[in-house]
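Deliverable D2.4 — example input (structure tokens):
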């Protein structure tokens, strides 16, 4: 039922009308003078295991509809669409990233991501060269670049210029995060948030249980203002993503505006796209094509001093690193509560090093800035290098 290892160079000139189900080892007639127009010099990568039991009486003179013009000697079973792209993640350390200020800037990824998927981008300021309350906000993300700027709030004055700061970012495709042993240690995903007021919290569940999780959540598209606000005003309404109630199955989140915007707390914001990363506490090795990405996740407890703006908590990484890492930090709790004037808060970092970083929290300037948040919060810290 199988043809010989060395078939004749061409079909017979006049195939029989009813060929036998098992062709003879040596066909009765010689090959035709003119074989098929363009035979392949080597068999396809996956030839059929044997001829059909009953071939057609009049075989077509041309090969399959879409033959390969020149198959490789050893083609891969499932070649990647773009073998040169980065299939998993990209990190850019604060040491190498360009400085950023209050002017929006576009940043192209250092290497292409696989396919045309839009990644989740997580960015964080890693210096404290300007003391005003602010955060790094990402306003546009595409499959080839993202746009970001330093966003100051306006509780004390309308001046929003900010000194240039260092920052780091991580861009990751959505999906489960697995270590080099194939164990699931986290997840990356995205949601659309339409915040109706400052008291509403939404719930999110992971695809799989993540023990001892740390959550980082960032907006990836922030509208600057409402189309129509009370009194016909279009206020600049800065804010950021906030999380709480972090468990092994999920967490709660909202888009948190600054407290001085309380006059608009019942006014719905336009839709905002947000991305999240949940990581199991500990040190992890993740595969990034030909290289290994080191990743750590941990939490610390911190209370801002009421008198010292330079009161920080030092976070020692669970594994020392050969170069300054990308560090992401976010509060995991909301101890102040919605009714407190010091509820809205962001994390600021300084003294980024290979084995540690200093973290503090900052309220809006009207409520004390870096000396305003005098309640203890849990801060989650995730590092990449």
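Example output (designed residues):
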């Amino acid at each position: 039922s199988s043809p010989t290892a060395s078939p004749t160079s061409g079909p017979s000139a006049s195939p029989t009308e009813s060929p036998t189900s098992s062709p003879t080892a040596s066909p009765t007639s010689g090959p035709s003078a003119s074989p098929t127009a363009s035979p392949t010099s080597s068999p396809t990568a996956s030839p059929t295991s044997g001829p059909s039991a009953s071939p057609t009486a009049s075989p077509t003179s041309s090969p399959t509809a879409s033959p390969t013009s020149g198959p490789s000697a050893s083609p891969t079973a499932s070649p990647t669409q773009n073998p040169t792209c980065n299939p998993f993640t990209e990190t850019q350390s604060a040491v190498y990233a360009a400085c950023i200020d209050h002017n929006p800037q576009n940043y192209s990824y250092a290497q292409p991501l696989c396919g045309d998927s839009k990644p989740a981008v997580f960015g964080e300021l890693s210096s404290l060269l300007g003391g005003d309350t602010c955060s790094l906000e990402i306003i546009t993300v595409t499959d080839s670049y993202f746009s970001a700027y330093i966003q100051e709030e306006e509780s004390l004055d309308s001046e929003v210029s900010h000194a240039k700061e260092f920052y780091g970012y991580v861009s990751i495709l959505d999906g489960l995060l697995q270590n080099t042993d194939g164990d699931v240690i986290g997840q990356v995903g995205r949601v659309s948030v339409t915040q109706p007021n400052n008291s509403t919290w939404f719930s999110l569940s992971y695809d799989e249980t993540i023990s001892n999780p740390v959550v980082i959540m960032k907006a990836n598209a922030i509208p600057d203002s409402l189309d129509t606000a009370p009194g016909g005003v279009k206020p600049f309404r800065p804010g950021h993503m906030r999380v709480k109630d972090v468990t092994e199955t999920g967490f709660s989140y909202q888009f948190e505006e600054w407290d001085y915007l309380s006059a608009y707390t019942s006014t719905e914001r336009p839709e905002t796209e947000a991305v999240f990363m949940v990581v199991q506490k500990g040190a992890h090795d993740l595969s990034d094509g030909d290289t290994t990405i080191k990743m750590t996740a941990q939490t610390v407890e911190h209370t801002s001093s009421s008198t010292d703006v330079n009161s920080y908590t030092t976070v020692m990484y669970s594994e020392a690193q050969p170069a300054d890492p990308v560090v992401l930090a976010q509060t995991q709790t909301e101890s102040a509560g919605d009714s407190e004037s010091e509820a809205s808060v962001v994390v600021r970092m300084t003294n980024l090093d290979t084995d540690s970083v200093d973290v503090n929290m900052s309220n809006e300037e009207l409520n004390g800035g870096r000396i305003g948040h005098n309640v203890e919060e849990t801060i989650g810290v995730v590092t990449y290098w």
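The radius of gyration is 30 Å.
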